[in-house]
Amino acid sequence: MPKKPKLLTLLDILCLILVPAALVLILFFTPTERVMGPVQKVFYFHVSAAWAGMLSFLVAAVGGGLYLAQRKMKWDRLSLSAIEVGVVFGLIAILSGMIWAQPIWNTWWVWDPRLTTTAIMELIYLAYFILRSSLDTPESRARLGAVYAIVSVVTVPLTFFSIRLFRTIHPVVIATESSGGGAFNMTSRMQLAFFSSLFVFTLLLIDLIWHRYILAQIQSANQEIGI
Amino acid sequence: MADTLTDMIFGFAVILGVLGAYILILAVRMRQARSKYHVRTEKYNESQENSSR
After folding, report:
1. Tens of pLDDT, residues A148-194
2. I need a labelling partner for A128 at 20 to 30 A (CA). Which of A39, A43, A139, A216 fits?
3. In the CATH scheme, what is the code of domain A6-222?
4. Is the Cβ of A225 closer than 8 Å to some Cβ of chain B?
5. Interface residue A22 vs chain B (CB under 8 A)
6. Given 3-state DSSP classes, what are the helix, strand and coil percentages for chain B, each rounded to the nearest 5?
7. What is this model's ipTM?
8. Closest residue of chain A to B1, computed from CA coordinates
């Protein structure tokens, strides 16, 4: 049975320290936005969760590609773990966005291109688990799961660029000169909290995927023993 | 400035709540999988010993 690596324990401790630290940074260090008020502070974790979710889906697609190339089950386990964790982060991004939208847009949900593509992305990745559960052998689950992970990654750039491709009320966070109006003008303190949150959520993503990967290893070992 | 303090608290509660719930579920699943592994390996070893006798 796989043992927990020391590096993972270190990562656990780091996450246990850094997530509350990021929260303290957001609550007490960043200025309160002039128009939206305190609810704008949700933005730091909202964007970080969306980033972690999308990154996770990219990892899943890479895992799927490597499985198809090498036919090693470790890549299927990575793909599965990344999608499960990605779905959780996607859910956090959607829920926190709804809570932010309610007082600002005066509605929980609008069929805006960014919101719609995010919802589609989340549903597509949820369907991945339905697909896997409908297949009998681990090999077919791995093969079709890999193909599905690669095909569905199309939704990630579509979601990311939807605010640049279509007319939208969703703000552009990472702005360039060409993106023009609607972009966020962050102060240096806001930028520090924002990039810190992105870093912390990336670490948390690695930590959770790693834990889920170990769980997948134990589960497949259980299947092998249970003859 | 809009008074949105309650919304902010709700937002962070949901974010940390979902994360916490997932971590808890993951921990429970891990514990179950490990105990299942131990039970199965013990049974497997017993059956191997019995067949060798």
Report:
1. 999 999 999 999 999 888 887 887 766 655 555 455 678 899 999 99
2. A43
3. 1.20.120
4. yes
5. no
6. 90, 0, 10
7. 0.91
8. A35
**pLDDT for residue A227:** 44
pLDDT at B38: 85
A122 contacts A90 by C-beta, under 8 angstroms: yes
A219 vs B contacts (CB less than 8 Å): 33
Q: Distance from A104 to chain B by nearest Cα, in Å?
A: 9
Tell me the C-alpha distance between A196 and B17, whole Å. 20
Is some CB atom of chain B closer than 8 A to the CB atom of A203?
no
Phi, psi of A71 (to 5 degrees): 60, 35
Q: B37 contacts in A (CB within 8 Å)?
A: 1, 218, 221-222, 225
Cα→Cα distances A120→A73, A125, A161, Å = 28, 9, 14
- Domain range annotation of chain A: 6-222
**Is pLDDT above 70 for B18?**
yes
Beta strand ranges found along A21-67 (DSSP E) = none
Burial call A12-29: b when 16+ CB within 10 Å, e when fewer: eeebeebbeebbebbeee
Cα–Cα distances (Å) from A121 to A36, A97, B15, in that order, read 28, 15, 19
Q: Which residues of A touch B33 (CB under 8 A)?
A: 215, 218-219, 222
CB pair distance less than 8 Å for B11 and A100: yes
Closest alpha carbon to A223 in B29, B30, B33: B33
Domain ranges of chain B: 26-53
Contact A37 B19 (CB under 8 A): no
Question: Which residue among B8, B12, B33 places its CB closest to the CB of A218?
Answer: B33
Q: What is the pTM of this model?
A: 0.92
